[in-house]
Structure formats: C-alpha cells, structure tokens
C-alpha cells in the first residue's frame, strides 16, 4: 500500500508516530494499512494535512481499491451484458461513457 510502503518510510515515521500526527489510534491506522478499513473522507483530509497529498487523491485510490476487490469477488459470476444502453447524448450530458 502506498501509505505503508512509500509515505511513512519517506517521512521516516513509525505507525505510532503517524497515528498520533493523524489524530487517530494506532489500531485504526494499522487496519487502514492492512486494507481492512477504508480511507474515509475525513481520513483523506487528515492525510492531506499530514503529508500534502490532496484528499481527492486518497479517495480516488480508495475507490480504485474497492472497485478492484468487487471485480475480483464477482469474477466467478457469469458476465452480464448491459441491458439498457443510454443514448450517447444522455451520456454526454452526464459526463459518462461506456464501451460499445
């Protein structure tokens, strides 16, 4: 994990020191580092103040991690084709896209 493998070593901080600076418990930080707890919006703001990396970055990484885990969990399920394709004009209005 980025925080465990790159950030804390680069700052030369222990988990206990980082937890104190983040105003959280060492146990909570350990759960985050182990992938057992999510980085919440509140924690992302704490991380931004902690090391200067924007809160949105942390939330995007969390979302990517969550999506990857969900895809892995559903990998054994039969593939489902999209049942209702939206018109391109609606997708543009939404700022979304899908592969056709």
TrEMBL record:
Does the record bear DNA-binding in its keywords? yes
Specify the domain of life of the species encoding this protein: Bacteria
InterPro entries xref list: Cro/C1-type_HTH, Lambda_DNA-bd_dom_sf, Toxin_antidote_HigA
Q: Which PROSITE patterns match?
A: HTH_CROC1 (PS50943)
UniProtKB keywords: DNA-binding
Taking the record's annotation, the residue ranges forming a coiled coil are: none
List the Gene3D superfamilies: lambda repressor-like DNA-binding domains (1.10.260.40)
Q: Where is the HTH cro/C1-type domain?
A: 10-58
The name of this protein is HigA family addiction module antitoxin
